[in-house]
Amino acid sequence: MRTFVAITLPDDVRTALTDAFVDAPGGLRWARPEQWHLTLAFLGETDRGAEDVAAAVGQPEGPLELALTGPGRFGDRVLWLGIEDRPAGQLHRVARHVRAGLRAAGLPFDDKSFRPHVTVARAARREVTQRDVGWTQARAPAMAWTVDALHVLHSHLGGGPARHEAVATIPFRT
Known about the structure:
By secondary structure, this protein is α+β, with helices and mostly antiparallel strands. 25% of the residues lie in helices and 38% in strands. Strand 8 and strand 9 form a beta hairpin.
């Protein structure tokens, strides 16, 4: 099962982004709102259960105060919205905690550098352009929210777009 540890977006943020992107440009594959999340560690295919992953992560200190920042793109394939924390540095601390716990438990994960973002669209019939970034910048709402838990998600592939299912919750230690 494809597994990852993530922060999910609250309903009010999803709703505001959905409303903002209602007339999104064509030619891109826009992610469904229920799929929007901030990945802290991607484990990929693993046979370890969600409980094992949650136990390895343990409880990081929290809660976190997060906010949407401007959009950007990864090459010409991915359009994203940035996420920042307040005070700065707390989100990276939580990501390091998650990854250290996975590493200590011997759970392999994608160890590329952590860049806090939510993927909102991918290239489909055309490339993601700077114009798409500008369009997204003009419409994305300024929003902030409090995060009090992380989630272990499973990604179900096949039969259409991937579906992410929260299979375990990891509350913050306060």
